[in-house]
Structures are given as C-alpha cells and as structure tokens.
Amino acid sequence: MNLEQITTFLQVYQIGSFQETANQMFLPQPTISHRITQLERELGKPLLIRGKGKVRLTEEGKAFLPYARHILGSLQEGREAVASVEQGSAGKLTLGSNNSFASSVLPEVLDSFMTEYPKVALKVQCYASPTLVRFMKQREIQLAITRYTSNDRGITYRSVYSESTDLIVSPSHPFAKRKKVDIEEILKETFITYQKDTQYRDLLDSTLNQIQLNYITKFETNNLGLIKHFIKQNAGVHLSGSLYMRNELARKELVQVKIEHNPFAQSQVFIAHLKDEANSLDQLFIKHFEKQINSQLNRERSFLNEVTI
After folding, report:
1. Would you say 12 and 47 are in contact if contact means Cβ atoms under 8 Å apart?
2. Residue 294, domain extent
3. Which of 1, 111, 176, 216 has the highest count of CB atoms within 10 angstroms of its CB?
C-alpha cells in the first residue's frame, strides 16, 4: 500500500470514473486500474464496484474510505508542519548552555526569540562544555552555547561573539578610577575566580604560566552570582569579559578596566551543533542569537565610551 494507490482510490471514488480520473491525473487509464487492483489485492477485498455508470464503493470500500482520507489529511498536516518549521514559526528546539551564561545572558535572547516565534517550544539544559558536547553527540540537545571548542571533528563551532578579557573591580577599588592597569600590578591583588578544574581556570592558569606570572586566590566558586557579590564587596579582583557583567556594569555596581600588556586571547562565544545536522529552525535561532548578542555588544561599547568621556 502506498500514497499513490490511496490518492487514486479517493480520486476514482470522488469522480466516479476510471477514465475521467486518468484524464484529470494525466495518466493512462491502465495505470489507474493497476493502482486500484494492487490496493485491493493488499487489503484482500474489492473496494470499488465497476460496471456501467458511476463507480461505487463496496461495503469494504465504505469502511476503508475514512482511513484513506485520514492518511492524506495527516500527510498534508505534516507538510504544513515542515513548512512552518522552515519558516521558523513552529517546532521544538533543545539548547544547552553553562549556568553562568544561562543566568546572565540567555534570558534576554530567549525573551526576544519567543516573542518573535511564539509557536516554537524551547528546552534549555545547563551543563559544562564537555557535557554539552557529549549530550549533543547523543542527540539530547540540538545546539550548545559555549565559550570553548573541542577537537571533535563531528561538531561544528560557529563564533557569534568576541570580546577582550578585562579587569572587573568594585567601584570602591583604587583601580576603578584608572583607564588601564598593567597585568603585573593586577596580579599583586587577591583574586576572585571560578574554581579549579573549570575551563575558565585552566585558561587563566595556562596563560599566566606561559609568561611565568602567578596570582593569589581569595575566593573561588562555580557560581557567577557569588563571584559578582564578592567583587562588589571589594573582596578581590576578577578577570572577565563584559558580557556576563553587563547589567552590573550598566548600573555602575561594577567597573571594567582595560589590561595593559594584556596576555589573554579574545574570549569568544560559540554555538555548536553536529556537523551538517543544523536544520532550518536551528539556523533561525543561530541567526537570532548572533543578532541579539552583537546588539548587546554595541550597547556595551556605547556605555563604555560614555563612561570614558
């Protein structure tokens, strides 16, 4: 049984003639007869009464009719659903992100996305980058938002945002009044950092080890909210881009200072997906995400320019 046979059965019933059905479907009449015969053979019963006058349904044909209509109706609904996803108006999207990004950046992005595409259902799971990679490969998430890449060739990473690593301090810290601070001077301060065995800490340590510089840790945690709290309390200094801190910077609860002789590479945000497996809804979110993140970047630059002036 196939869709051609079911479609032909419905057409013959509605038109009432094998020959007229062939004419309207632009097919030879024997092709129409063959499709109906094959369908009847598979079902084991005749569906149509052939003869002079209009073709009529057998009792078995009457029983099969609503199911044939349902099959074609479901197919049309499926086509419409696919078209909706292609247009970005419907579908389900599962995202992965780390907790810090999810709490400080993602809400604004998701708010605007859900406002623009209200029929898209979203699911967000929060894990460290290595776990996000594993879940992606297990197809438990479609897209991962991460600061770090892996060497896995089966995953595509798209950079959507880039920023410098700067010094973040309390407004009451002496460095808050300066435009730039040398890295060696910064390292004389006590540090507030993410804990060991995080990718942030690994990157911090490896960068400073390369230039043979050390730092003293005052407080370490894997919670961004606590890091912000202790910076505000002037318990130490923190090295970060502005993205996670943008709300506190805008409210002047924290101060961002450029690092002179900055040894740190640009910090980036990536969206990752399995290679060649990003569907139209995935691509739609990626474009929206990139637009929203860079809009935030432009606002931050404007704010910093105003503060500098």
Report:
1. no
2. 91-162+268-308
3. 176
Q: Which of 135, 85, 276 is nearest to 144 (CA)?
A: 135
Distance of alpha carbon 266 from alpha carbon 52, whole angstroms: 82
Looking at the structure, tell me whether residues 154 and 243 fall in a common domain: no
Per DSSP, the residues of 39-98 read: HHHHHTS--EE-SSSS-EE-HHHHHHHHHHHHHHHHHHHHHHHHHHHHTTSSEEEEEEE-
Per the CB < 8 A criterion, the answer to whether 247 and 168 are in contact is no
Residue 264 has pLDDT above 60, yes or no: yes
pLDDT mean over 169-184? 96
Mean pLDDT taken over the chain: 88
**Which of 36, 55, 86 is where one domain is finished?**
86
Q: Which two tokens stand for residue 50?
A: 């052939």
pTM higher than the cut 0.85: no
Largest Cα–Cα separation, the chain: 102
Tell the burial category of 157 from Cβ atoms under 10 Å away from its Cβ (0-12, 13-18, 19+): middle
Q: What is the pLDDT of residue 293?
A: 83
Q: Check: CB of residue 153 under 8 Å from CB of residue 275.
A: yes
Neighbours of 278 (CB within 10 A): 19
Q: Which of 75-79, 130-134, 251-255, 278-282 has the lowest mean pLDDT?
A: 75-79
Q: What is the DSSP string of 101-134?
A: HHHHTHHHHHHHHHHH-TTEEEEEEE--HHHHHH
Strand 48-49 and strand 91-97: pairing? unpaired
Dist CA 102 CA 230 (whole Å): 20
Which residue in this structure is represented by tokens 């003639």? 17
Number of structural domains in the chain = 3
- Cβ-contact 205, 191 below 8 angstroms: no
